[in-house]
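Notebook p. 47: complex prediction with calcium ion.
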Amino acid sequence: MNLDELKELRQVACETAVSAGKLAHEMWSQPRQIEQKGFRDLVTDADFAVQHCITDAIRTKFPDHGFLTEEEDSQLPETGPIIWIIDPIDGTTNYSRNVPEFCVSIAACARQADGYQPLAAAIYDPMRQELFSAAKGQGATLQTGDTPPRPTAVSSVNSTENAVLALDWSSSADTRTSILELVGELMHSSFTVRAIGTAALAMAWVAAGRVDAYINLRLRPWDVAAALLLVQESGGTFTTPAGEPIMWDVAGMSCLVSNGRLQFNL
Ligand code: IPD
Ligand code: CA
Ligand code: CA
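Predicted complex, structure tokens below:
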């Protein structure tokens, strides 16, 4: 893939994330239709509307590309030279309760034997008009409203006792038990621990140096794809809690996202 192609993928990811985020923001104050699609797993009418907004825009631009989306849509092709991995609203529980922490996450990826290689990515927080974006080998930026984009970099905090950590709970009882064990340890060894309720945005905040590390023991590809590129292009690391490369798995992945300067014994 040449530089112009990468730039085009990033631009489409950014424009689409911003339009989709505007739609999520418009729907924010209206009454929600909320369904339970799984155990402790909600979906709203806005998740579907925002996903359609994203996939329609990308299909118009790239009719031969494929999709991996959080919300089911039988109309979408699954294969193509590029796979767009999309979480229309990351933080649906927050969104459904009018907690203003959520984002749109979009990544254009190359398919590999063992998963995906994100090439261009955008995460948009419509409540703050913050657009995080990256392209492989080209760095990552944060643009707020109409101001010029600024490069993002992970924090320089290098001791766990000074580290502001973030994590999220999982829906499953077993995973919650594992996270509670981790929190029990980290709560005492770190400066503090936050649970934000939107994995993609929390990981974008690691990329921007606002949070020093983020842990989640059960993320899906659409939570991960865009944030992975943002964090790597901002100088951070994205591994399993044991420090191994993540193994892509649609059923769930254990992830430790860090500024790369902290030592954890997880
Ligand atoms: C969820 C959020 C949450 C994380 C879950 C995700 P959704 O995504 O990112 O913070 O803990 O693992 O599934 O359902 O709001 O898109
Ligand atoms: Ca998600
Ligand atoms: Ca979602």
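Notes: The pocket of calcium ion (ligand 2) is lined by residues 87, 90, 199, 222-223 (CB under 6 Å). The helical segments are 3-28, 45-61, 92-96, 173-189, 199-207, 221-233.
Next step: compare against the earlier run before touching the bench.
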